[in-house]
Design brief:
Elements (H helix, E strand, L loop, with lengths): L2 E5 L3 H10 L4 E6 L11 E3 L5 H7 L5 E4 L6 H11 L2 E4 L4 H12 L5 E3 L8 H10 L4 E13 L14 H9 L2 E5 L2 E5 L6 E5 L2 E7 L7 H5 L5 E8 L3 H11 L6 H11 L6 E13 L2 E11 L2 E3 L2 E3 L1 H18 L7 E2 L7 H6 L8
Parallel strand pairs: 1-2, 1-4, 2-3, 4-5, 5-6, 6-17, 7-12
Antiparallel strand pairs: 7-13, 8-9, 8-12, 10-11, 11-12, 13-14, 15-16
Helix pairs in contact: 1-10, 3-4
Length: 351
């Protein structure tokens, strides 16, 4: 793998390109200029133009999509048809299902969606903890990308794709409950979490588990993913989406929330995983907790959500390039070794 096309030159996509360009020949593609200065060539073009994708993608060994979930499928299909490795950040379950169906028909290269933070890194962490047990009982995964200094009733800032956030808040969530795979509504399952003396809430959101319900069905009593927010956020989002019926006006609520809660520079990403089970005949509990803050890369300030997301997908690309992962077919995030990921050049940022 030498030449990589990165589609989407927003904050995350620009950083993905910067990190990949330390090792690979990178070209960016977007209809707009990159969100920040990058040291690799970029092309201007509309990714909804299928003919453009069919013209460009064959010239590369791999394509990394950093586009909103609703634009990924055409990119994935073109990569599949031309036998090129494909990676994305989607949290959208139907998109992932369609990509898996492609892989099931036989693929000449890797198809690896869901390579972000959640789904993605959190599933790798959860599987690493689960592998330490003889028999499992519960796997509970929690992630929150939050402003470090919240204000207002929502206590939130859209440092990530508003379309993706709203999608997670509306679509049903796959879980394992009482040993059976079920669907539960997003924004339900509200719980209180205390982290280092601070109180947060967490509730179910869609897509965070990726393919883990399939992987762990019949092996656990409980498996779920919840998003961490400051207290009161979930109640207000339920009011907006369901009492005001804005769930049927996605573009409108995305516009309202983006205008009301613009990105902040100082954010924090919480990653928290808990696994309970038996090690031989002894019941035990293993935990993983990290709070990731903004960092500087090549002298530039990068928000926590930007670098954790970018580092997750770039590390997976490195593992495929190094032959540490399969070279064809669909890759589940939970099949990726946490130790291998942290040992990559980019994965070391998590340490």
């Amino acid at each position: 793998m030498k030449k990589i096309l990165v589609i989407g030159m927003g904050k995350v996509g620009s950083l993905v390109g910067v990190l990949l360009s330390k090792r690979f020949e990178v070209t960016g593609l977007d209809k707009n200029s990159p969100a920040t200065e990058v040291g690799f060539p970029t092309l201007k073009g509309d990714v909804t133009d299928r003919a453009l994708l069919e013209k460009l993608i064959p010239d590369f060994d791999a394509v990394v999509s950093c586009m909103p979930y609703n634009l990924n499928l055409a990119i994935a299909e073109t990569a599949y048809q031309t036998g090129k490795h494909y990676f994305d950040l989607t949290e959208d379950v139907p998109t992932t299902t369609a990509i898996r169906e492609m892989a099931a028909r036989g693929s000449r290269a890797v198809l690896a969606p869901q390579c972000g933070l959640a789904p993605g890194f959190i599933g790798i962490v959860g599987a690493d903890l689960a592998n330490r047990f003889t028999r499992l009982r519960d796997i509970e995964l929690r992630v929150g990308a939050l402003p470090k200094y919240p204000n207002g009733l929502l206590g939130y800032s859209f440092t990530w794709s508003p379309a993706g956030v709203i999608n997670e808040y509306i679509n049903d969530c796959e879980v394992i409950h009482n040993g059976k795979v079920k669907l539960v509504p997003a924004l339900d399952g509200l719980e209180t979490i205390n982290i280092e003396g601070m109180e947060f809430e967490a509730f179910s959101t869609s897509g965070g588990l990726g393919t883990m319900c399939e992987t762990y069905e019949g092996k656990v009593d409980t498996l779920n993913y919840k998003t961490i927010r400051y207290p009161g956020h979930g109640k207000l989002m339920r009011f907006l989406l369901y009492e005001l019926i804005l769930k049927d006006r996605r573009e409108l609520i995305e516009e309202i929330l983006t205008e009301a809660k613009p990105p902040v520079q100082e954010d924090v990403v919480y990653v928290y995983a808990v696994v309970e089970g038996w090690k031989n005949d002894r019941i035990e509990r293993e935990e993983f907790y990290r709070a990731y803050s903004p960092i500087k890369i090549d002298g530039k300030h990068w928000r926590a959500i930007s670098w954790t997301t970018a580092a997750s997908i770039v590390a997976v690309v490195e593992l495929v390039a190094d032959g540490k992962l399969p070279q064809t077919g669909f890759i589940k995030q939970e099949d990726i070794s946490l130790a291998d990921l942290l040992a990559t050049t980019t994965g070391q940022y998590f340490s």
